Amino acid sequence: MNDKTEIRQVTVISGKGGTGKTSLIASLAFLLQGYTILADADVDAADLYLIFSPEKSEKTEYYGTKKAVMDFDKCTKCMKCYESCRYGAIDQDLNIEIVRCEGCGLCKHVCPVDAITMVERVSGNYFVSETRIGRMVHAKLVPGEESSGLLVAEVRKKALEVAKEDNKLLVLIDGSPGIGCPVISSLSGSHMAIVVCEPTVSGKHDLERVLELLKQFNIPGFIVVNKSDINMDITNEIEEKFGKEFPIIAKIPHNHIFTQAMIEKKTVVEIDSKDKSVTDIQEMIENIAKLILEKLKIIH
Amino acid sequence: MISLAVVSGKGGTGKTTIATSLFLSLENAQLIDADVDEPNCSLFLDIKTEYVKDAQVPIPVIDSTKCILCGECVKNCEYNALANLPNQILVFDRICHGCGVCSVVCPTEAITEKNRSLGKIFSGTNEKRRFDYGELIVGEELSTPIISTLKEQIDEEKDYVIFDSPPGSACPMVEAVIDVDYVIVVAEPTPFGLSDMKVVVETLYQLNKKFGVIINKEGIGNEELENYCREKGIAILFRIPFDMKIAKSYSVGNNLLKTFPEWKGKFQKIIKEIAEEVKNE
Hints:
Chain A is an alpha/beta fold. Chain A folds into 2 domains: 8-63 and 130-295, 3-Layer(aba) Sandwich (Rossmann fold), CATH 3.40.50; 67-120, 2-Layer Sandwich (Alpha-Beta Plaits). Chain A is 35% helix and 23% strand.
């Protein structure tokens, strides 16, 4: 961590969706724009483009899993493929249902007459774009496609490359909700994680699972309790239960400013307001940004 | 039997709230929580687990006395779950999708399979209501096989089966909705909410599904989501206003019907209309 040339990765995750992860990372990226490249790795619900209006995008096609294609001129209807497929992707008339096909190629291997080929398909795109805060890496998965974890890995790799080119020290990654393959992929190589949660019974339950994941991967985690005033009792329970191992770095009350900023295509910290409830929140976010730089020894 | 899935592109829009409310509005129904990364329905229901089942995926076991290190299994694995070391073949359990290609391509029949647990399925009943949920083991990557195992739990005797789908629009969501008769999309009227809903709608068009939208937290954002639905001719089934009372009541694990018992009739009506639409096909 003391190696000054190593680019640091910070991933913002949430376990439960809708806790304010994307709004928070947008503000952090705005505040840290001199230091960071922003990467949107929430590839099947990518929303950061709505705040930063990316332009002059350089697009790269992403090839996910292959799909099986049947040549009916060669097929002898032996049914071996139908009997072998473990995903129910081949029906009795030997039509291949693309959305169910996992691209494993088992059907091709069992076919005695080489009637099946495996075809590569574009299952998403990723982009390097220009925005008002510098370059941003973002992606779009083709709806319904799988292997989003692999696309996340591409976004992460690309963001590190771009950070190097632009002499940035930091990559901020917006991760997916949940704890499965795309989340694990977004956490890979991270130096720290910020976990945004909400004080509800489900929020607490989901937080516990996502923190367990951080422990397994040995990534230091910091908790932000958003909408903290919805239930102060649970906010306190979260602090008592997890705070020792995963410090609570902000408790942000529920505020309309989050939705308003989104509608104005701005980050929360860009909103000009004299309302103390808003400026208090802006100050909390500024403190989180400072803490990231200090913890990663980018500033002392 | 009619099957429904409750989905949302964006997380936190109220999918679980809607799924549990629909379930509790019905007498003879089954709820399946397929959001196996973060299953939450059980927190809003009073149904005890009666039995537990493992959700498994078959993974290869390599018999080193038969293996000739030819590398065919490594070469043909589409998921890079095998690696060729100088004196052994290594299996990366967590990446393996359990497709079975390696055993088929092995020329010396050195590969057999064993089952590996990815998570658990919990099931319980309360009178004529049945509830099942799946839970991914923390650290595991593959949610989809647990959802497939959950689908084996469908009780055909029920009038309705409701799936609480994972958020997003990638493979776990597709697995949850692909076989249902009707999909309910829960969305919030904000720019993020609309953007994520559009991706879900595209997915549902592609899957050729009938669907309608429930707008939750009405009043927090703008009109654009409503305009989009109107332009596309998408039915809006219900609107739930944003209300701190709902948020606070949700926070302690109360179901929506506990806060607003009078909405039970409304949910029953939504279901009845959906049932008619499905039967008229």
